[in-house]
Amino acid sequence: MSASDPTVSTGDIARLGRVGRAAVSNWRRRHDDFPAPVAGTASSPRFALAEVEAWLRRNGKQYRLSVADRAWQRLQSGGAALDVPARLAAAGAFLLARKDPNAAGGLPGTGAPADPELERLLDELAAAPGPAAAFEDLCTRHRRRPGEPSDRLAAAMARIALPDGGSVLDPACGTGALLLAAGGADSAGQEVDAVAARIAAIRLLLAGGRVDGPVLVGDALAADAFPGRAFDAVLCAPPVADRTWPHDGLAGDPRFVYGLPPRTEPELAWVQHALAHVRPGGRAVLRLPYGGGGRRPGRRVRAELLRAGALRAVLTVEDDAESRPVDLWVLTPPAAAPDSVLLARTDPDGAAELWAAFAAGRAVAGRARAVHVLDLLDDDVDVGPERHLPRRAAAEAGRAFTELRRRAPATVPALRVTRDGVPLPGATIGELARVGALTVRHAPREVTDAGPGAVAVLVVSDLARGTVPSGRTGAGPGMVRVRAGDVVGGALGRARVADRGASSGRG
């Protein structure tokens, strides 16, 4: 096939066949004639569209290739995979010009070359729902950038920050998910990636935002594009674990009134940048990595935020779209110092409800607690909810155990719940390995999990999603074989018991 031939992902195939992703995984595993990947990686393979269509017809599978599908495949097939964001931005600029010929001239960044065939499909796609809906359809097919919040989480953050509407800033806006969730009409953003900034600006303008440069290109920490300007709210999902932030050049910067964070704590720099742009009475809501509220290097800055009354809530959110929980920090410019901070474990929909109850002075319970500020100002200054919330109630744990036991195979030995529990000694995996109770094996980094081959490979994304092994490789030295019953773990903390044989992928 040529480089311009359309390819599809497993998600695209699921949409074509009107099935779930698990069905596509089953097709790949059970049918020897299912097309082999022609591009992508083991964790994100891509297949020739023509071969997939032929297989679906040959096997009597109903499928539908909509105008949006054809436009997306054309957009993806115009060059290297890394060019997809630039081609998506070009498609958005074309649709924006279709709505307002004068608006595209003020977009940040530069445009990609025109594609007449793609433009024909975009015209057809936008005919009924309009340019804004057409571009959002394409954007939803584009893979979220690492750290970019899901639609549910973005909506929850917007509800917390702007319950009554108003102006909003996102200083690391990516492709604009948070600004769109906030309404987009009176929005401003900054983004270091010029292509992502261009996409965000297009989305905002198509949604009815202001034309006077809603998104500017640049690193907000190094070169703030909105110095001295205050907003009703700041929403932000800053870069995760960014160790390249300009720490040394920010000493004495007036934004960091709570102290310049250590180099290993860039999230606390983004927290203070956000607070510097919130007007009195407004709020900042940031999506930060899970567990960052207890790291020792940042305890001095966290203590200052608590003493000033700036940190109002830390909500650990379990989002189905994420492989692990995330933390939402809610902050306000200091006024009368509050006496408590809301700490909670919740889902995206419950986060805004818990905050609304706490802000209104109502009691919170269950997986939420209002913790007195003085109780947090200890040696660790740990504001992570896990440390301060009660563990799952015994009755709830008992019900969960009963349900698991009911669904367990008959080979599981008889177990019962006792009321008089005896503390049992614990041991780490390393300690068990040292005494020979178990063996730990790591797949070598040089073992590939992409390409043709008869050996199934269990990759990290399979572990996170709970799917069957999706990688393929050939037999070779150094491979680590996984047998049914082995425990397989990944670097992000996910683990599961393997139910079939495979080779272990990297990580």
Kindly list the characteristics that best describe this protein:
single chain, 507 residues, alpha/beta, Rossmann fold, nine-stranded mixed β-sheet, four-stranded mixed β-sheet
Describe the protein's architecture and organization.
With 507 residues, this protein is of the alpha/beta class. Among the domains are: 1-55, no CATH class; 151-172 and 220-388, Vaccinia Virus protein VP39 (Rossmann fold, 3-Layer(aba) Sandwich); 429-504, no CATH class. The protein has helices at 10-17, 21-30, 49-58, 67-76, 84-99, 116-126, 131-141, 151-161, 177-181, 194-206, 266-275, 299-308, 348-359, 373-376, 385-388, 394-407, 429-434, 460-465, and strands at 7-8, 39-40, 45-48, 168-170, 187-191, 215-217, 231-236, 278-289, 311-317, 326-331, 340-346, 368-372, 455-458, 471-473, 481-482, 487-489, 495-497, 502-504. The chain has a nine-stranded mixed beta sheet, with helices on both faces. Helix 9 links the parallel strand 4 (168-170) and strand 5 (187-191). The longest helix has 16 residues, at 84-99. The radius of gyration is 25 Å and the shape is globular.
Summed over residues and divided by their number, the pLDDT gives a mean of: 85
- The count of DSSP E runs of length 2 or more, i.e. the number of strands, is 18
**Helix proportion range:** 25-40%
The CATH first-level class of the domain at 151-172 and 220-388 comes to: Alpha Beta
- Quote the distance from N terminus to C terminus: 32 Å
Strand arrangement, major sheet: 6-5-4-7-8-10-9-11-12
- Total helices: the number is 18
- Overall, the morphology is globular
In CATH, the topology of the domain at 151-172 and 220-388 is named Rossmann fold
How much of the sequence lies in strands comes to 15-25%
Name the structural class.
alpha/beta
CATH architecture of the domain at 151-172 and 220-388, by name, is 3-Layer(aba) Sandwich
